[in-house]
Every structure is written in structure tokens, then in C-alpha cells.
């Protein structure tokens, strides 16, 4: 039976969690409650006058074709970003795990991009693929590819997905490497003795044992694609061309801070929060059942 920890001072536990509770209340629950309250109001652009309109803001947002387009853009963007960043990170982690000489150097170099701010990461990719001065855009033109993400929607989406995935690969790589190190080498050696090839060993032994890590990263990458990629999209495309890369979080910014439609923007933020909570709950409800924590 696990011994129970008892604090001699009954006030001490509350003092220890007080800073975290204060941060959560000030920076999460208070803004969330304000967004929920403002979503029920119609305000002038300066916030001087407001009146209660109930769910009218939500009805107008859901009926807006531009909002439906943002939902579709977000779905494509988030799935592509999560899949590419996790797949590439897993491949690099497996390769780095096999390197003997200089293994720590490779791992350190792979982690560096995570320290780059999202806006800086976006600008790096924008300079590389700028149709006028970008070195990689110049290479694409010589390969016969007409590259212009400033005017071509699918190319703009490809660019922001690449930048967002590149930014997140380092984070995923770090956890996949830790997961690979936790797998007993005796299991892999036993499979090799039985004649299993490297590919079969990976899919039948290594990958199933990485299921907890993969599930954790799936949840984190979904949240990252919905929220933390705002800086990349703002720096690279600004939601264009023609709203081809305007995700839900960027539309909240456009309507609230640029167009000053405060009620609609607040309603969109509430809907976005509900979508992310629902996706996370679905992942824990259905995906986690297939996760083996053995």
C-alpha cells in the first residue's frame, strides 16, 4: 500500500499551489470568461457602448461563408502540420538513435529550431521562398516550377505548413528520442535473433511501444496547429492570398483587432475554444483506447 504524504502544516499545500492557481485564473479563466461575456454583446469599435444580443453573434458567425472557409483551412492546415512534423521527427529520432559517434551533437542540433520564435521562423521561410529574392524560390523556377505563394493559394498553404511543421519538429524529436531510449534493447535484439528485419521490428515492436509518446504529441501538435501558429501565418502570408491561409485563430485576430467587430471576434474565440476542447476529449475518448502503456 502506498504511504500517504501528510503535511504537518495544513496551510503549506495551499501556499505551494497558490502561484499556479493565480496564473491560471488571471491568464486563462478571466480572459475566457470575458470572451464568453463579450460574445453575447454587440459593441461599437471603441467599446464605449454595448447591448445584449444573446446568440446573434454566433448565428452570424456560423452563417458567414468566410468563417466556413476558415474552418476548412484550419482542418487542412492542422492535419498536415501535425502529420508532417510528427512523421519527420520520428524518422529523425530513429536515425539519431542509431548513430554511435557524435550522437549527442546530432540531437543538440536537432533541438535548436525549437528555440526560434514563431514569427522569426516564418520570416526565415518567407525569405527562402520569396518569389523575388528567395534562394530556394530561384531553384524552383530553374526546375520549371512557377512558384509564387503571394498569389497562389495552395502554394501559400504549402509554405505555412512547411514553416509550422519545421518549427515543431524539434519538440517532437525530443520526446521521440526519449521514448526510443526507454524501449528495452533486449526486445529488439530478441526480434533480430528470430529473423525479423529492421522494418518489421520497428512496426511490430518499436512503434507500438511509442504509442504513449505518439498520443501525447498528437494532442500537443493539434493544440499547436490551432493556436501557436498565429505568428507564422501573420509573418508569412497574413492569411492570404484570398483568405487561403486564414485559420480560425487568425480570423479571430482579423475581425477583432483589424476590423474591430468585437462581438463576432469574441464569438469566434469561444467556438474555437469549444472545438479544441472537443477534439482533445475525442482523442482521449477514442484514440487513447488504442494506446498501450505496458
UniProtKB/TrEMBL annotation:
It is a multi-pass membrane protein. Its main location: membrane. CDD domains: TM_PBP2. It is found in: Cell inner membrane; Cell membrane. Pfam families: BPD_transp_1. Residues 71-283 form the ABC transmembrane type-1 domain. InterPro entries: MetI-like (IPR000515), MetI-like_sf (IPR035906), UgpAE/MalFG_permease (IPR050809). Keywords: Cell inner membrane, Cell membrane, Membrane, Transmembrane, Transmembrane helix, Transport. The chain crosses the membrane at residues 12-32, 75-96, 108-128, 156-180, 201-220, 266-287. Part of the ABC transporter complex UgpBAEC involved in sn-glycerol-3-phosphate (G3P) import. Probably responsible for the translocation of the substrate across the membrane. Belongs to the binding-protein-dependent transport system permease family. The complex is composed of two ATP-binding proteins (UgpC), two transmembrane proteins (UgpA and UgpE) and a solute-binding protein (UgpB). This is sn-glycerol-3-phosphate transport system permease protein UgpA. It comes from Mesorhizobium marinum. The lineage of its organism: Bacteria, Pseudomonadati, Pseudomonadota, Alphaproteobacteria, Hyphomicrobiales. The gene is ugpA.
Amino acid at each position: 500500500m502506498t504511504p500517504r504524504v501528510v503535511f504537518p502544516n495544513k496551510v503549506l499545500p495551499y501556499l505551494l499551489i497558490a502561484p499556479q492557481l493565480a496564473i491560471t485564473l488571471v491568464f486563462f479563466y478571466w480572459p475566457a470568461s470575458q470572451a464568453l461575456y463579450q460574445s453575447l454583446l454587440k459593441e461599437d469599435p471603441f467599446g464605449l457602448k454595448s447591448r445584449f444580443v444573446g446568440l446573434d453573434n454566433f448565428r452570424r458567425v456560423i452563417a458567414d461563408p468566410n468563417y466556413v472557409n476558415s474552418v476548412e483551412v484550419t482542418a487542412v492546415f492542422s492535419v498536415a502540420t501535425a502529420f508532417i512534423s510528427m512523421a519527420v521527427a520520428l524518422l529523425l529520432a530513429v536515425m539519431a538513435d542509431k548513430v554511435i559517434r557524435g550522437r549527442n551533437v546530432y540531437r543538440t542540433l536537432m533541438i535548436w529550431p525549437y528555440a526560434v520564435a514563431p514569427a522569426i521562423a516564418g520570416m526565415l521561410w518567407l525569405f527562402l521562398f520569396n518569389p523575388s529574392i528567395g534562394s530556394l524560390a530561384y531553384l524552383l523556377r530553374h526546375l520549371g516550377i512557377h512558384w509564387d505563394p503571394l498569389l497562389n493559394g495552395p502554394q501559400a498553404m504549402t509554405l505555412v505548413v512547411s514553416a509550422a511543421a519545421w518549427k515543431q519538429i524539434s519538440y517532437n524529436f525530443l520526446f521521440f528520442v526519449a521514448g526510443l531510449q526507454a524501449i528495452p534493447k533486449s526486445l529488439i535484439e530478441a526480434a533480430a535473433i528470430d529473423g525479423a528485419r529492421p522494418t518489421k521490428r520497428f512496426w511490430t515492436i518499436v512503434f507500438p511501444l511509442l504509442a504513449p509518446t505518439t498520443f501525447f504529441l498528437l494532442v500537443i501538435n493539434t493544440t499547436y496547429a490551432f493556436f501557436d501558429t498565429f505568428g507564422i501565418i501573420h509573418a508569412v502570408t497574413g492569411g492570404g492570398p484570398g483568405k487561403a491561409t486564414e485559420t480560425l485563430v487568425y480570423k479571430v485576430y482579423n475581425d477583432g483587432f483589424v476590423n474591430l467587430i468585437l462581438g463576432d471576434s469574441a464569438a469566434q474565440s469561444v467556438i474555437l475554444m469549444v472545438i479544441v476542447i472537443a477534439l482533445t476529449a475525442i482523442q482521449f475518448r477514442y484514440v487513447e483506447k488504442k494506446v498501450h502503456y505496458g
